[in-house]
Structure formats: structure tokens, C-alpha cells
Design goal:
Strand order of the largest sheet: 1-2
Helix content: over 70%
Number of helices: 14
Radius of gyration: 32 Å
Largest sheet: 2 strands, antiparallel
Number of domains: 2
Length: 291
């Protein structure tokens, strides 16, 4: 048989056959009239290589299994160690397959959740649909005020990043759904002022930022129990510290203006002045949280 024929019978390619020759997995056949002539033994060996590889073994593991070939070599004293190597490789492959099956099952569950969201008419986003609607409503209100919507876009993108990492708890939904129209208007006004901080002179910007933080704290305090529920559902330990660090990095990138940094710092200062907020934030962010 020519190389193309044996490759076709084994469901592979001549290139793969030549690769097996280079690796020493498949013996090079004799040359007849200037061409390699493969026999049935070569085909049997090639099929066995393909069968083991398709079962999940690497070519290194295939080489270990086939040297010496336990299908053709009877057990002899001293060959038990080879059997253990083969068993170890096969069991390792089996463990890998089991892990892949678990990952596929988890992926299928996530796909099912996406299907359910689409069937329910919800947006495909890694955050609750209520949060998407909240930012849509805020953007519309900011536009109506003639404000700059870039701050809304920046915050939305930050939330999407956190949501993609599983760091946006579902308890955020009751909080945003508790905001009435007047409070949504207040949020839009505060976002508009926040965006304008970048155009204000230094002293005026910082003073406005501190006043804006106080007004934001008033709104948060009106829904204190819901805010505490959100903060209480944030990750703690290493994940919590990583999340707060990520928020700081994203805030620095999205809001580079010093006055905007002053707003974030002052708001955190006001939150930490409340014992309930302080305890809940430090559980997640650590002893000395920063924004």
C-alpha cells in the first residue's frame, strides 16, 4: 500500500503518517521500486495509534503505551512497571475527560441561562436586566438635562466588567427598583454635575465634589437597608480585596479628573463614618479601603 492508501484507510493524512515515522511511533516500511510499501502490520499499528490518540492520549503517552506493545508482547518478568505506567497514563486521561465533562456541563447550564434570557426578552449581558434598564433610564434623563452621557457609559462599562467576573450581586436589583422617578431624576442631576467636575477650576471642583458626595450619601441613606444588603453580598477575603482594587483601577481609568477622585474619596469617607456601612465595607475591602 502507498502512504496515501494507508492514511485513507486509517482516517488520517500522509503528513500525519510521516510525523509518526519521525516520532518513532510507526516503523518506516521498505522501499519497493522507489516507493514505500506499507503492509497490513503497518496499517494495524497506525490504526492503534489513531485509536489511542482519539481516546485522548498525547503522542508521548501513545509512545509509552506502545513500547513495548502490550497487544503483541506477552507479559514477562520485569514488565509490570510498564503496565503501571500505561495504567497511570490512562487514568490521567480519564480524569482529564471527567474534568472536561464537568466544564461542558457548566457551560451548558450557562448557555441554558442565556437561552432563557433571550426567550424572556432580556438583554444578553453579565448583569441583571434591571440594571441594564436602570442605566438606560439614567442615560435618557441625562440627555434630557443636556448633560454628558460619557460618565454613564463609563460606569456602565465598569459594572459590565465586574458582572463578567461575578462581582455584581443580585441584591442590587431591589435597590435600583426602590428608586422612584424623583430619585432617578436626582441621580441624573448628580451624574450631570459629576461630569462637569472635569471642567471646573481646582478649588471649585473639589468643593463641588464634596457637596455632591454629601447629596449622594443622602440618597444612599434613604435606602440604607437595601444598600447594606448589596454591600453584604460582595465577595470577601482575597476576592473582596481584588474586587475593590479593580474598582479603584477602573475608576482611575474612567474618571481621571482630580475633582472626580475627590468625590469618590469623600463618599467613601462618609460611608465609613457610619458604623453599619463601615463594618460591611471592611468585611469585603479590608481594614483600609480606598477608591
Amino acid at each position: 500500500m502507498r502512504v496515501t492508501k494507508i492514511a485513507d484507510l486509517a482516517g488520517t493524512t500522509p503528513r500525519a503518517v510521516r510525523h509518526y515515522h519521525r516520532l518513532g511511533l510507526l516503523e518506516v516500511p521498505p522501499t519497493v521500486r522507489g516507493r514505500r510499501e506499507y503492509g497490513v502490520g503497518h496499517l494495524a499499528r497506525l490504526l492503534r495509534i489513531r485509536w489511542l490518540a482519539d481516546s485522548g492520549l498525547s503522542l508521548r503517552q501513545v509512545a509509552e503505551v506502545l513500547a513495548p506493545d502490550p497487544a503483541t508482547c506477552p507479559e514477562r518478568p520485569g514488565t509490570g512497571s510498564h503496565r503501571q505506567v500505561v495504567l497511570s497514563d490512562l487514568r490521567a486521561v480519564r480524569d482529564t475527560i471527567s474534568a472536561q465533562r464537568r466544564l461542558l456541563a457548566e457551560q451548558a447550564q450557562r448557555i441554558d441561562a442565556l437561552i432563557a434570557r433571550v426567550e424572556a426578552g432580556q438583554a444578553l449581558a453579565p448583569v441583571p436586566s434591571a440594571l441594564t434598564r436602570f442605566y438606560d433610564a439614567l442615560e435618557a434623563r441625562v440627555r434630557a438635562l443636556g448633560g454628558d452621557v460619557r460618565s454613564v457609559h463609563a460606569e456602565r462599562q465598569m459594572v459590565l466588567v465586574l458582572g463578567s467576573l461575578g462581582m455584581v450581586p443580585d441584591s442590587v436589583v431591589p435597590f435600583i427598583e426602590a428608586l422612584d422617578d424623583a430619585e432617578l431624576d436626582t441621580c441624573a442631576q448628580q451624574i450631570t454635575t459629576f461630569a462637569r467636575l472635569a471642567q471646573m477650576p481646582g478649588g471649585q471642583g473639589v468643593a463641588t465634589a464634596r457637596d455632591l458626595a454629601a447629596r449622594s450619601m443622602d440618597l444612599i441613606s434613604r435606602h440604607k437597608h437595601l444598600t447594606l444588603a448589596v454591600l453584604g453580598d460582595l465577595p470577601d477575603g482575597v476576592m473582596g480585596h481584588a474586587m475593590w482594587h479593580l474598582v479603584q483601577v477602573l475608576s482611575d481609568a474612567g474618571y481621571p479628573c482630580p475633582a472626580q477622585h475627590a468625590f469618590a474619596s469623600r463618599l467613601l469617607e462618609l460611608l465609613l463614618a457610619d458604623p453599619d456601612f463601615a463594618a460591611t465595607i471592611r468585611r469585603s475591602a479590608g481594614k483600609d479601603p480606598v477608591l
